[in-house]
Amino acid sequence: MDCRPGAPVDNVVSDPPAIDDEKLVDFADNVFVGRVIKRVGYEPPSENAPPLPQTLFAVKVEKNIKGSLSGTVVVAQDGGCDPRYGRVVLVNNDNLLQPGQEVVFSTRKQSPDGPHQIVGSNYGDIRVGTEEEKTKIIAKFRNDQREIVPFDRSEEH
User: Fold this and answer.
1) Residue 155, exposed/middle/buried by CB under 10 A (0-12, 13-18, 19+)?
2) What residue spans define the domains of the chain?
3) d(Cα 75, Cα 86) in Å, to the nearest integer?
4) CATH fold of 20-147, please?
5) pTM higher than 0.90, yes or no?
């Protein structure tokens, strides 16, 4: 069974701890502006809790804020089709990415060969509507990156 357009949608509410942009930038391996090219696959729900599907997208990297990605990368978004039930599962009502969207991504790599995992629904994939919005988001994340002070063990007492 596969999810067809108009399939029922379930929302999984995941209450992450409060996260600010500075912590998000610090936690992420990469923060970048990218354009979604297409859906390239999905990972079915796993047996662990919560059993969520993941949808994989090809994304063209347009501008790095943190990191040095280039070309096209694969980005994994929590949520997608759960073929066991023919239903779409969203996390925190974070709609699945769509081809053509310009997005500011915050991602982490779980393994060298794996995709770039969006670090949090609704704040690790910020859709950009205008150049002005994009400029403001980039400036905010760049400023947050500069404000991060790495922990220096030599200063321990």
Assistant:
1) exposed
2) 20-147
3) 23
4) OB fold (Dihydrolipoamide Acetyltransferase, E2P) (2.40.50)
5) no
pLDDT at residue 49 is higher than 70: no
- C-alpha 5/C-alpha 153 separation (Å) is 53
Phi, psi of 24 (to 5 degrees): -60, -45
- pLDDT, tens digit, for every residue of 129-138? 899 998 988 8
Tell me whether the omega of the peptide bond preceding residue 50 falls within 30 degrees of 0, making it cis: yes
At residue 151 the predicted structure's pLDDT band, cuts being 50, 70 and 90, is very low
Cβ–Cβ under 8 Å, residues 133 and 103 = no
pLDDT digits (tens, 9 = 90+) for 88-124: 889 888 999 999 999 999 999 988 888 999 988 877 8
Give the SS3 label for residue 110: coil
Asked if 102 and 35 touch (Cβ cutoff 8 Å), the reply is yes
Q: Which two tokens stand for residue 65?
A: 């804020």
